[in-house]
Specification:
The complex is a heterodimer. By secondary structure, chain A is mostly beta strands. Chain A has one domain: Lipoprotein localisation LolA/LolB/LppX (outer membrane lipoprotein receptor (LolB), chain A), CATH 2.50.20. Chain A is built from 4 helices and 15 strands. Chain A has helices spanning 2-11, 29-41, 138-142, 254-257, and strands at residues 23-24, 27-28, 46-56, 62-73, 80-88, 96-101, 108-113, 118-124, 149-156, 160-167, 177-183, 189-195, 201-213, 216-226, 231-242. In chain A, the strands form 2 sheets. Chain A has a 13-stranded antiparallel sheet, with helices on one face. In chain A, helix 1 (2-11) runs antiparallel to helix 2. Chain B has helices at 2-10, 12-27, 48-59, 82-96, 136-147, 176-187, 201-235, 238-261, 273-299, 302-329, 337-367, 387-401, 403-422, 439-450, 474-490, 499-511, 524-534, 565-581, 595-628, 632-638, 640-656, 662-693, 696-703, 706-721, 731-761, 764-767, 778-799, 804-827, 829-840, and strands spanning 35-36, 64-71, 113-117, 122-127, 163-170, 195-199, 266-267, 455-463, 495-497, 553-560, 588-593. Chain B contains 29 helices and 11 strands. In chain B, the strands form 4 sheets. A 4-stranded antiparallel sheet of chain B has the order 9-10-8-11. In chain B, strands 5-2-6 form a 3-stranded antiparallel sheet. By secondary structure, chain B is α+β, with helices and mostly antiparallel strands. In chain B, a hairpin with a 4-residue loop joins strand 3 (113-117) and strand 4. Helix content of chain B is 63%, strand content 7%. Classes of the chains: A mainly beta, B alpha+beta. The interface between A and B is large, with 38 and 45 residues.
Chain lengths: 267, 841
């Protein structure tokens, strides 16, 4: 799941209604993207990981976040549910962020703030806002709508496919287009570069470490860099497990105030 | 020196050749010219205020802003209609693309986030205006959202909804003029009911720099032209008056060449060097020409006449130049680097001008064709009186007969002026360097009437023991909010924004949007969770403009509606008072940053510095006068017109309510240097006459003749020559124009009225020769010793940072030594007699 969680940003463009714009080694763009999606995004029925996040700003000041992510697929290749429990910073411990990801309509999101004893639904007008102050945006985390971009294979070499993605609607996105690089050997997307309307590259996301876990290729360290401000966020994943039979009940409002102790060590 | 003058008259071509080489050498420096229009450079780079300002900017990712105001007075909903907001959208998009604009830090409704209620138990984070509104209803919704946000209200939109601001952060202040021109181009595409205004300190400063050069190219030559025409009126011969013009021009070119050659940038201050040098350079030449004009008819030999004229004038001109030199050199003691540079180079220019006058004028006169001088020179004075004579003659007679009345009026003027000085307010504001109807001044007025203020200052609070997280604590945030409330009540601040406002807003929206929850959560965790929710927005980093990520430092944005220093100072005092009366729950210290504050800092330094410079150079000039006139008392008397002039001019400033600002402060040096000149000429010339005739009435008649004409020609040429500056679009230039006229007018009047009145009271004071050298009188000697000690003290204070002990260690022994010298002199008649004989030679 982890893999799926962290890589969904790359796979959001898959499938439905995508026009094929080229062939390579017998594979269409759609097939490449589809394959990459299968490899990286739908590994296992469910999964979990401990996440350590370090946000570094342009002045080198660091902030840390520590949380556990639980993920469960509702349907393979379809809806997903996420449960994010925060350990750090210390004063947001017990905070929970929950997402029901839908296809074709807005996601459902909940936020639990323990200090205010408050559960709020979050209505999002778009998915490009920051994830807890990091350089990753919500869409990097929960996945960009699969048919929201058009894709074009712009080049390839021995190792990578380079694919250009242009949003079909400019509404609610700050980028004009982005490129992704997909590894040919295991179809793992390892890099994305975002460009603004003036053709200036302003944002890069890259995999720093790819490991094999339970037979699934998994990104265990990745970095988002904001080239405008010079800041970046590095995420490392620990204790990754797939196929752990998460109870569907966990992903309900009831569990926001009472984290599932089987999976969440409250320390 | 006299040999050099003679040499110049005999080898004119050599002099011209040397000058030409100097000119060429100066000219090749000009391509190296660097321009610096940043008033921040008024503080040296390692000055605490400046270091802290830059550190704060970095720490809180703050930038210098150009403020673009968009005002719609015609639509009943102000700017909140489809048309205007569409323009705002397009303009923002256009500005984002300008090079030098930090587009991701732009403050505009188009690129800001909002947090709002979206049904029961639901909050929504969204862009405030991701696209232009399609209906009036949408436009009004945007208005309501902005009005409900304490970060926007009074900063981006005005209370009445009629005005909206876009804050354009720029990479460098020096780009602001250029960027403002590009913004102008963009807004010219969106005409309609809207009016556009641009302001902000960086743009004022940079635009000033730009217009300054335009003014340099207009004002200085214009002043030159008028001086030229006036001289033509007085001396009638074009080929003759070209000489002083050349002296002025060459002096300016060489001085500026030196400045550039030494690698100094042309700063707001140094751009004024030419305008200061022109009158000073012309001064000596007019005296020489005046004298030449008087004598030429009698001799008919131009070489002989010119050498004789210069010799007659040599001592007064030397002292006039030296006093001006001292006046400006004293600026090098100033704590402000550009003022130091200005002082050093103007004083250098003064001496260059003097030297060129001494050499080039005789050379030039030797070179001109004698035929062209045929009708030149003063005609029979008795038969054909000029206008000047018609005025000067009676003045001379009245002053001598009614000297008591003159002195009485002098005393009254002096007293009134002192009262005026007590009313002077020290204040400056770069925006006010522009005239009232300049677009920047208009923008400043309109926008500050609508908004909480476009002048930003930052109050940075930090934990005294470097404790982190204290600004997450509710008690601390409540304290900050109380401080903001207090400032609001005091009414001198337009608006303040702090982390407390952000916390309250997020808390309120999270809890349900009801106004009763517009408050700080009761626990630190509560605050932290509100703030981490805020970071789920599109612009999470906006938080770090208000607090550092470790929550150890808080930055309160303070918007002032006026960039006047006195306004900023008032707010500083209010905060000091509040913190004193209300101790913070955690130990904190605080400091100020922001351009508005930086201006206060350097101006305070300047005022104190200038006052010290002025007193110092006053003492040194006095010392020189005492030597020149052979007695401290005479020195003092010679300085009376100057003192009255200065007191009068500054008193006038106080009475008409003109603020004491940077240009005014700098001009005090010019006043000192120029005003003493007339007194020197008057006393020196009348003394030589008195020695021959021993008759004061005759001496007065003589002095009000030739020397009087020279003095008044000078006064008129310079005063009138600089009058066109009064219509310049930049206020500092107007100030210079006013000062030149005032200095010339008042000090010539002072010289013509006050000096002769005092002399009439007791001619012996000035003229009677003493038996011994003045150093051999106990009072005079001790008095001079005190003056020397003060002068030394002044130089030490100006150039070093030694403490009281060091000062005492130097000055006390010096004083004792000088007293010993005095004692020796007093006991040694022989030396005294020798000294006196030497002096008479």
């Amino acid at each position: 799941m982890l893999k799926k969680f962290c890589l969904s940003w790359v796979f959001s463009f898959v499938l439905l209604g995508v026009s094929f714009s080229g062939y390579s080694a017998g594979l269409t763009v759609s097939q490449i993207v589809d394959k990459a999606n299968k490899v990286a995004y739908y590994a296992g029925q469910d999964g979990m990981a401990d996440v350590h996040m370090v946000i570094t700003d342009s002045q080198g000041r660091k902030r840390e976040r520590e949380f556990t992510i639980l993920r469960k697929d509702v349907q393979d290749g379809g809806e997903q549910k996420f449960y994010v429990y925060f350990y750090k910073p210390e004063d947001v411990r017990d905070m929970v962020y929950m997402v029901w990801k839908h296809l074709g309509r807005d996601d459902d999101r909940w936020l639990y703030l323990p200090a205010l004893d408050l559960v709020r639904r979050i209505a999002a007008s778009d998915k490009r806002s920051s994830f807890v102050g990091s350089h990753f945006v919500y869409e990097d985390v929960s996945g960009r709508g699969i048919d929201e971009d058009t894709h074009e294979l712009v080049s390839q070499d021995d190792k990578y496919y380079k694919i250009k993605n242009v949003p079909k609607s400019k509404k609610y996105v700050e980028f004009a287009y982005y490129y992704i690089w997909i590894r040919k050997d295991n179809f793992m997307p390892v890099k994305a570069e975002y460009y603004d309307s003036q053709g200036k590259k302003y944002r890069v996301i890259e995999a720093l470490k790819v490991e094999n876990i339970q037979g699934y290729p998994t990104i265990t360290e990745m970095k988002a860099s904001d080239l405008n401000t010079g800041g970046n966020t590095v995420i490392t994943y620990n204790k990754i497990q797939y196929d752990i039979n998460l109870d569907d009940n966990i992903f309900t409002e009831r569990f926001l105030r009472k984290p599932p102790l089987k999976w969440i060590k409250r320390k | 020196m006299k040999k050099i003058i003679k040499f110049s008259a005999e080898h004119p071509k050599f002099v011209v050749a040397v000058l030409a080489i100097a000119l060429v050498l100066s000219f090749i420096q000009y391509p190296k010219m660097k321009v610096d229009t940043d008033p921040e450079n008024m503080l040296s780079k390692d000055e605490f205020v400046r270091v802290f300002h830059n550190q704060t900017k970095k720490e809180f990712s703050l930038y210098d802003f150009i403020v673009l105001g968009i005002v719609n007075e015609k639509n009943p909903h102000g700017v909140f209609n489809v048309d205007t907001l569409t323009k705002v959208y397009n303009i923002t998009k256009g500005i984002e693309k300008i090079k030098g604009v930090i587009s991701y830090e732009l403050i505009s409704p188009v690129v800001k986030d909002d947090i709002e209620q979206a049904g029961i138990g639901t909050v929504r984070f969204k862009w405030l205006m991701p696209r232009p509104p399609k209906t009036e209803k949408e436009a009004l919704h945007i208005r309501d959202r902005m009005m409900a946000n304490p970060v926007f209200y009074g900063t981006i939109i005005s209370e009445d909804g009629k005005a909206l601001c876009i804050y354009v952060p720029i990479e460098k202040k020096s780009l602001s003029y250029q960027i403002s021109q590009k913004i102008k181009k963009i807004i010219s595409r969106y005409k309609g009911d809207e009016k556009y205004y641009m302001t902000g300190l960086p743009i004022a400063e940079d635009t000033f720099g730009h217009e300054m050069f335009v003014q340099m190219a207009i004002s200085a030559p214009l002043a030159g032209l008028i001086i030229f025409l006036l001289m033509l009126m007085f001396f009638k011969k074009i080929n003759l008056i070209i000489a002083p013009m050349i002296v002025a021009l060459v002096t300016v070119i060489i001085t500026m060449g030196l400045l550039i050659g030494f690698g100094f940038p042309v700063h707001i201050m140094s751009s004024m060097i030419p305008i200061f040098l022109i009158p000073i350079a012309v001064l000596s030449s007019i005296h020489i020409l005046s004298e030449f004009f008087e004598k030429y008819r009698q001799t008919g030999d131009r070489k002989k006449t010119i050498i004789e004229s210069i010799n007659t004038l040599f001592i007064p001109m030397l002292y006039a130049a030296l006093t001006t030199w001292i006046g400006f050199l004293s600026l090098s003691f100033s704590p402000i680097p550009p003022v130091q540079v200005f002082g050093v180079f103007v004083s250098t220019g003064v001496m260059i001008a003097w030297f060129i006058s001494m050499t080039f004028i005789p050379a030039y006169i030797a070179l001109i064709n004698p035929k062209t001088l045929k009708n030149f020179g003063a005609l029979n004075i008795e038969s054909q009186k000029s206008v000047l004579d018609k005025v000067l003659g009676p003045v001379g007679r009245i002053v001598v007969s009614k000297w008591k009345i003159v002195l009485f009026f002098t005393l009254i003027t002096f007293a009134v002026s002192i009262w005026g000085i007590s009313r002077i307010e020290v204040n400056d504001n770069p925006v006010k360097w522009f005239v009232k109807n300049h677009p920047i001044r208009i923008a400043d007025r309109v926008l500050n009437a609508h908004f909480g203020g476009t002048y930003m200052a930052y109050l940075v609070m930090q934990s005294e023991d470097k404790q982190t997280e204290i600004f997450k604590r509710p008690a601390m945030l409540k304290y900050v909010a109380r401080l903001q409330n207090y400032l609001k009540q005091k009414g001198d601040v337009g608006k303040t924004t702090s982390l407390a406002d952000v916390t309250k807003k997020v808390y309120m929206e999270l809890v349900g949007g009801s106004k009763q929850y517009y408050k700080i959560p009761s626990t630190k965790q509560g605050v932290a969770q509100c703030l981490i929710s805020f970071q789920n927005s599109h612009k999470p980093d906006d938080l770090w403009h208000f607090v550092t990520p470790d929550y150890s430092k808080l930055n309160m944005w303070v918007q002032l509606t006026s960039g006047d220093n006195k306004n900023m100072e008032k707010v500083i005092h209010q905060i000091d008072a509040f913190v004193k009366a209300n101790p913070s729950p955690y130990k904190i210290k605080y400091n100020w940053a922001g351009l508005t504050y930086v201006n206060v800092a350097w101006q305070n330094k300047m005022v104190v510095g200038m006052l010290r410079n002025f007193l110092g150079s006053f003492i040194i000039v006095f010392f020189m006068m005492a030597f020149l006139f052979g007695s401290p008392l005479r020195g003092l008397i010679s300085m009376i017109p100057l003192t009255v002039t200065i007191v009068f001019i500054y008193g006038l400033l106080g009475i008409v309510g003109r603020d004491y600002d940077m240009p005014v402060a700098v001009l005090s040096a010019l006043t000192l240097g120029l005003s003493i000149d007339f007194a020197i000429h008057f006393i020196q010339r009348s003394r030589s006459r008195y020695e021959q005739t021993k008759d004061w009435k005759d001496t007065a008649r003589y002095t009000f003749g030739g020397p009087g004409r020279a003095i008044s020609r000078n006064a008129i040429v310079i005063a009138v020559g600089f009058l066109p500056l009064l219509v310049a679009p930049l206020v500092p230039y107007q100030t210079v124009g006013f000062f030149m006229a005032a200095i010339m007018f008042t000090s010539s009047l002072g010289t013509f009225f006050i000096l002769p009145s005092i002399i009439t009271a007791n001619p012996a004071l000035i003229y009677v020769k003493k038996e011994k050298h003045f150093l051999c009188y106990p009072f005079d000697c001790i008095f001079l010793a005190v003056t020397i000690v003060l002068a030394v003290l002044y130089v030490i204070l100006g150039y070093t940072h030694i403490g009281i002990k060091g000062i005492l260690a130097i000055t006390v022994p010096l004083f004792i030594a000088l007293v010993c010298v005095c004692k020796c002199l007093l006991n040694n008649e022989k030396v005294c007699r020798i000294l006196n004989l030497k002096k008479e030679e």
